[in-house]
Fold these 2 entries.
Entry 1:
Amino acid sequence: MQRQTTIYKKIDVAKKWYIVDASDKPLGRLASEIAVVLMGKNKPQYTPNFDCGDYVIVVNCSKVWLTGDKIHKKMYYDNKANTYGGLRTRSAKVMKESYPTEMIRRAVGGMLPKGPLGKEMLKKLYTYAGAEHDRKDKKPIEVELTAKREK
Protein backbone atom coordinates (compact mmCIF):
# COMPACT_ATOMS: atom_id res chain seq x y z
CA MET A 1 0.00 0.00 0.00
CA GLN A 2 1.42 3.33 -1.04
CA ARG A 3 0.76 6.50 0.96
CA GLN A 4 -0.06 9.70 -0.80
CA THR A 5 1.44 13.00 0.31
CA THR A 6 -1.07 15.76 0.85
CA ILE A 7 0.00 19.05 -0.68
CA TYR A 8 -1.70 22.06 0.87
CA LYS A 9 -2.30 25.41 -0.76
CA LYS A 10 -2.79 28.84 0.81
CA ILE A 11 -6.58 28.61 0.56
CA ASP A 12 -6.59 25.34 2.55
CA VAL A 13 -5.08 26.93 5.67
CA ALA A 14 -7.26 28.97 8.04
CA LYS A 15 -5.38 31.76 9.81
CA LYS A 16 -6.18 32.68 13.40
CA TRP A 17 -5.24 35.65 15.56
CA TYR A 18 -3.38 35.09 18.83
CA ILE A 19 -2.48 37.55 21.58
CA VAL A 20 0.59 37.04 23.76
CA ASP A 21 1.41 38.89 26.98
CA ALA A 22 5.19 39.41 27.11
CA SER A 23 5.40 40.63 30.70
CA ASP A 24 7.92 38.77 32.89
CA LYS A 25 9.06 36.44 30.09
CA PRO A 26 12.56 35.87 28.68
CA LEU A 27 13.08 37.49 25.28
CA GLY A 28 14.70 34.58 23.45
CA ARG A 29 12.24 31.90 24.54
CA LEU A 30 9.29 34.12 23.80
CA ALA A 31 10.67 35.04 20.36
CA SER A 32 11.32 31.42 19.38
CA GLU A 33 7.77 30.36 20.26
CA ILE A 34 6.27 33.36 18.44
CA ALA A 35 8.35 32.42 15.38
CA VAL A 36 6.93 28.88 15.46
CA VAL A 37 3.37 30.26 15.40
CA LEU A 38 4.19 32.76 12.63
CA MET A 39 5.71 30.02 10.47
CA GLY A 40 2.83 27.63 11.14
CA LYS A 41 4.99 24.82 12.50
CA ASN A 42 2.39 24.19 15.19
CA LYS A 43 -0.17 23.13 12.54
CA PRO A 44 -0.50 19.76 10.84
CA GLN A 45 -0.77 21.57 7.49
CA TYR A 46 2.75 23.06 7.81
CA THR A 47 4.43 23.48 4.45
CA PRO A 48 7.86 25.11 4.39
CA ASN A 49 7.55 26.79 1.00
CA PHE A 50 4.58 29.07 1.75
CA ASP A 51 3.24 31.12 4.60
CA CYS A 52 0.72 29.04 6.55
CA GLY A 53 1.22 30.63 9.98
CA ASP A 54 -1.11 32.66 12.14
CA TYR A 55 -1.20 36.31 13.19
CA VAL A 56 0.37 37.21 16.54
CA ILE A 57 -0.22 40.31 18.69
CA VAL A 58 2.37 40.89 21.43
CA VAL A 59 1.44 43.28 24.25
CA ASN A 60 3.58 44.57 27.15
CA CYS A 61 6.80 44.39 25.12
CA SER A 62 8.48 46.79 27.53
CA LYS A 63 8.19 44.24 30.37
CA VAL A 64 10.22 41.48 28.71
CA TRP A 65 13.51 40.58 30.39
CA LEU A 66 16.96 39.30 29.47
CA THR A 67 18.95 36.70 31.40
CA GLY A 68 22.39 37.28 32.81
CA ASP A 69 24.16 40.58 32.15
CA LYS A 70 22.81 40.93 28.59
CA ILE A 71 20.89 44.07 29.53
CA HIS A 72 24.25 45.89 29.74
CA LYS A 73 26.47 43.90 27.35
CA LYS A 74 24.20 43.04 24.40
CA MET A 75 24.39 45.54 21.54
CA TYR A 76 21.99 46.07 18.64
CA TYR A 77 23.61 47.21 15.40
CA ASP A 78 22.07 49.00 12.44
CA ASN A 79 24.07 50.10 9.40
CA LYS A 80 22.71 53.37 8.08
CA ALA A 81 24.55 54.22 4.88
CA ASN A 82 23.20 57.78 4.69
CA THR A 83 24.82 58.92 7.96
CA TYR A 84 28.46 59.73 8.58
CA GLY A 85 30.17 56.65 9.94
CA GLY A 86 27.17 54.52 9.03
CA LEU A 87 27.03 52.17 12.03
CA ARG A 88 24.52 52.87 14.80
CA THR A 89 24.79 50.89 18.03
CA ARG A 90 22.34 50.66 20.90
CA SER A 91 22.58 48.65 24.09
CA ALA A 92 19.80 46.30 25.15
CA LYS A 93 18.97 48.65 28.03
CA VAL A 94 18.37 51.53 25.61
CA MET A 95 16.33 49.28 23.31
CA LYS A 96 14.17 48.06 26.20
CA GLU A 97 13.50 51.58 27.50
CA SER A 98 13.05 53.44 24.20
CA TYR A 99 12.29 50.86 21.49
CA PRO A 100 10.75 47.73 23.11
CA THR A 101 8.65 46.83 20.08
CA GLU A 102 11.67 46.91 17.77
CA MET A 103 13.57 44.66 20.19
CA ILE A 104 10.86 41.98 19.96
CA ARG A 105 10.60 42.34 16.16
CA ARG A 106 14.36 41.90 15.74
CA ALA A 107 14.43 38.84 17.98
CA VAL A 108 11.54 37.17 16.15
CA GLY A 109 12.82 38.23 12.73
CA GLY A 110 16.15 36.55 13.41
CA MET A 111 14.35 33.24 13.96
CA LEU A 112 12.27 33.37 10.77
CA PRO A 113 13.49 32.25 7.32
CA LYS A 114 15.57 34.80 5.45
CA GLY A 115 14.22 36.24 2.21
CA PRO A 116 10.80 37.23 0.89
CA LEU A 117 8.97 34.44 2.75
CA GLY A 118 10.39 35.52 6.11
CA LYS A 119 9.45 39.15 5.44
CA GLU A 120 5.92 38.07 4.62
CA MET A 121 5.73 36.13 7.91
CA LEU A 122 7.11 39.05 9.93
CA LYS A 123 4.31 41.30 8.60
CA LYS A 124 1.87 39.17 10.63
CA LEU A 125 3.53 40.23 13.91
CA TYR A 126 2.00 43.21 15.73
CA THR A 127 3.88 44.53 18.76
CA TYR A 128 2.71 47.02 21.38
CA ALA A 129 4.72 48.46 24.28
CA GLY A 130 1.70 48.69 26.61
CA ALA A 131 -1.28 46.50 27.42
CA GLU A 132 -3.63 48.14 24.88
CA HIS A 133 -3.84 47.18 21.22
CA ASP A 134 -6.02 48.24 18.30
CA ARG A 135 -6.81 44.79 16.86
CA LYS A 136 -9.80 43.98 19.08
CA ASP A 137 -12.06 43.59 16.03
CA LYS A 138 -10.10 40.44 15.03
CA LYS A 139 -11.12 38.73 18.31
CA PRO A 140 -7.68 37.28 19.13
CA ILE A 141 -7.30 34.15 21.24
CA GLU A 142 -5.14 34.67 24.32
CA VAL A 143 -2.31 32.12 24.64
CA GLU A 144 0.40 31.52 27.22
CA LEU A 145 3.57 30.59 25.34
CA THR A 146 6.31 30.56 27.97
CA ALA A 147 6.31 30.30 31.73
CA LYS A 148 6.64 33.48 33.75
CA ARG A 149 9.81 34.27 35.68
CA GLU A 150 9.90 32.99 39.22
CA LYS A 151 10.86 35.69 41.68
Entry 2:
Amino acid sequence: MQDSHMNDKQKNSRRRFFAGAAGVGAAAAAVAVLPKVDVSEEAAAPAARPAPEKGGGYQLSEHVKRYYRTTSA
Protein backbone atom coordinates (compact mmCIF):
# COMPACT_ATOMS: atom_id res chain seq x y z
CA MET A 1 0.00 0.00 0.00
CA GLN A 2 2.82 2.37 0.81
CA ASP A 3 4.52 1.78 -2.55
CA SER A 4 1.48 2.79 -4.58
CA HIS A 5 1.17 5.98 -2.53
CA MET A 6 4.83 6.78 -3.12
CA ASN A 7 4.44 6.18 -6.84
CA ASP A 8 1.49 8.59 -7.02
CA LYS A 9 3.52 11.18 -5.15
CA GLN A 10 6.48 10.75 -7.49
CA LYS A 11 4.22 10.96 -10.55
CA ASN A 12 2.68 14.21 -9.30
CA SER A 13 6.12 15.63 -8.60
CA ARG A 14 7.36 14.75 -12.07
CA ARG A 15 4.21 16.16 -13.66
CA ARG A 16 4.68 19.45 -11.83
CA PHE A 17 8.31 19.60 -12.86
CA PHE A 18 7.58 19.01 -16.54
CA ALA A 19 4.61 21.39 -16.50
CA GLY A 20 6.83 24.07 -14.95
CA ALA A 21 9.58 23.42 -17.46
CA ALA A 22 7.08 23.71 -20.31
CA GLY A 23 5.82 27.00 -18.90
CA VAL A 24 9.32 28.41 -18.63
CA GLY A 25 10.08 27.30 -22.17
CA ALA A 26 6.93 28.94 -23.50
CA ALA A 27 7.75 32.18 -21.69
CA ALA A 28 11.29 32.18 -23.07
CA ALA A 29 10.00 31.60 -26.59
CA ALA A 30 7.50 34.45 -26.21
CA VAL A 31 10.21 36.83 -25.02
CA ALA A 32 12.46 35.85 -27.92
CA VAL A 33 9.72 36.65 -30.44
CA LEU A 34 8.70 40.02 -28.96
CA PRO A 35 9.84 43.08 -30.91
CA LYS A 36 12.92 44.83 -29.61
CA VAL A 37 12.44 48.29 -28.13
CA ASP A 38 15.14 50.85 -28.82
CA VAL A 39 15.52 53.09 -25.79
CA SER A 40 17.60 56.14 -26.47
CA GLU A 41 19.42 57.97 -23.70
CA GLU A 42 17.09 60.95 -24.01
CA ALA A 43 13.99 58.85 -23.47
CA ALA A 44 15.51 56.69 -20.72
CA ALA A 45 16.74 59.51 -18.46
CA PRO A 46 14.05 61.50 -16.65
CA ALA A 47 14.28 65.27 -16.64
CA ALA A 48 16.92 66.12 -14.04
CA ARG A 49 16.26 68.89 -11.57
CA PRO A 50 18.95 71.47 -10.99
CA ALA A 51 21.23 70.80 -8.03
CA PRO A 52 20.36 72.66 -4.82
CA GLU A 53 22.44 75.80 -4.28
CA LYS A 54 23.22 75.08 -0.63
CA GLY A 55 23.90 71.37 -1.03
CA GLY A 56 21.73 68.57 0.21
CA GLY A 57 19.14 67.29 -2.14
CA TYR A 58 16.38 65.95 0.07
CA GLN A 59 12.99 66.76 -1.35
CA LEU A 60 9.68 65.96 0.24
CA SER A 61 8.10 64.24 -2.75
CA GLU A 62 4.92 62.19 -2.98
CA HIS A 63 6.67 58.85 -2.56
CA VAL A 64 8.46 60.14 0.57
CA LYS A 65 5.16 61.35 2.01
CA ARG A 66 3.62 57.97 1.23
CA TYR A 67 6.49 56.25 3.04
CA TYR A 68 6.01 58.41 6.10
CA ARG A 69 2.29 57.60 6.12
CA THR A 70 3.00 53.86 6.02
CA THR A 71 5.46 54.01 8.91
CA SER A 72 3.19 55.94 11.26
CA ALA A 73 1.15 53.65 13.45
